[in-house]
Amino acid sequence: MRTATFLASGDRHQAEDLVQTALMRLYVAWPRVRTETVDAYARKAMLNALIDDRRRPFARHERMSSEVPDVAFEDAPPTETEAAVFRALAEIPPRMRAAVVLRHLCDLSVSETAAALGCSEGAVKSQTARALAQLRAALDTSIRPATNRGSHE
Description:
Number of strands: 0
Low-confidence stretches: none
CATH class: Mainly Alpha
Number of helices: 8
Order of helices and strands: HHHHHHHH
Largest sheet: none
Distance between the termini: 42 Å
CATH topology: Butyryl-CoA Dehydrogenase, subunit A, domain 3
């Protein structure tokens, strides 16, 4: 769920959808999945779900219900830093976001990330470098001004 949350730029509902889709695909493929590759298969299914969701025109339909759920669930609001990170992640393309999340959040190697994304190691390196540069630039403008206010007075 943590990885999905970062892939979905902090959108908990989209993250839950990604996890559910990955679990469904894993369940369907279970007889073919080797025990030692379960985690990699689940990650790949989640990445494919993210990319597939971005490619298709928005055609997902919610089911309406006349009954209210038994228990209401509200997420704790993100901290200012978390919100800034999620906004910055939302600004970069899904494959770049996936490269950064897999490399730095999931702590995968370049070759493992390349296998998960279905691309070359060079593409992972360049996508990660570009994404980190964009994230640094976005975070510099949103976090640093707030922390430097007291130093000029």
